[in-house]
Amino acid sequence: MKSLEKILDSVMRFLMALSMFILVAFGTWQIFSRWVLKDPSTFTDELLRYVLIIAGMIGSAYCFYRDEHLALTLVSDKAKGTFKFILNIFIEACILFFVVYVFIYGGWKLSATATNVSSVMRIPMKTLYLIEPLCGIMIVIARVLKYLQAFSKGGENS
């Protein structure tokens, strides 16, 4: 389980670092070509838009992996005992349902049915849409690893 966590962590961190490098490199090129060369690059605007979306999606999956995502804990912080346990299970079930249905199922359907291409780079949009189910799978793996850790810790405390 630890090796799977390490692999998932390494993959997500690498993808985020790569996307940030691309954003900086091509953003700098866009500024240089626009202001110094007086001939703005045509593809960098579209590339940066897509890479920013990809970076955001991978970043959100990483936040779920690290359990540092945005959460409204107003009710769950005040709950105690069995109610808190049941509430946390309900919240996690809602998260998993949303991720599986919207990210994985919806993203896969979107990718499978897309027929358009990007306007400048001529990349099939179905390729770009695959980031949604990929991040959904990473979120589900991250949540399952969290559950396995919680159950193993619960078993050690008994």
Give a verbal description of the structure.
The chain is mostly helical. The chain has one domain. It contains six helices and no strands. The longest helix has about 35 residues. It starts with a helix and ends with a helix. The model has no long low-confidence stretch (mean pLDDT about 90).
Low-confidence stretches: none
Query: What is the number of beta strands?
Result: 0
Calculate Rg over CA atoms.
Answer: 20 Å
Overall pLDDT score: 88
Q: Tell me the major beta sheet.
A: none
Strand content: under 5%
Helix content: over 70%
What structural category do the secondary elements indicate?
A: mainly alpha
Q: What gross morphology would you assign?
A: elongated
Number of helices: 6
Number of domains: 1
Essential attributes:
158 residues, mainly alpha, 6 helices, 80% helix, 0% strand, elongated
Concise overview:
With 158 residues, the chain is mainly α. It has helices at residues 2-35, 44-66, 74-78, 81-113, 125-129, 131-157. The chain starts with a helix and ends with a helix.
Q: What's the topology here?
A:
Blueprint: H1 2-35, H2 44-66, H3 74-78, H4 81-113, H5 125-129, H6 131-157
